Automatic annotation (TrEMBL):
Single GO molecular function: glyceraldehyde-3-phosphate dehydrogenase (NAD+) (phosphorylating) activity
UniProt-recorded name of the protein: NAD-dependent glyceraldehyde-3-phosphate dehydrogenase
Keyword hit for Oxidoreductase: yes
Domain spans labelled Glyceraldehyde 3-phosphate dehydrogenase NAD(P) binding: 2-64
Gene3D superfamilies in the record: NAD(P)-binding Rossmann-like Domain
Keywords: Oxidoreductase
The encoding gene: gap_4
Length: 64
């Protein structure tokens, strides 16, 4: 399994993560680099105004 980090969680970063969560992927997202808090990032992922609610994971993993 390859590990992936997302640098920036704007429109493109969120779409990449949504797609990875929706399909069986051999990629594991291990980091998201953004200025916003993890709670806000989770909210933005879950409640997308253009693409609707996310069907992927909706809980925050353990943060360091």
């Amino acid at each position: 399994m390859s590990k992936l980090g997302i640098n920036g969680f704007g429109r493109i970063g969120r779409l990449v993560l949504r797609r990875l969560l929706e399909v069986d992927s051999s990629l594991e997202v291990v980091a998201i680099n953004d200025l916003t808090s993890p709670k806000v990032l989770a909210y933005l992922l879950k409640h997308d105004s253009n693409y609707g609610p996310s069907r992927g994971a909706s809980t925050l993993p353990k943060m360091r």
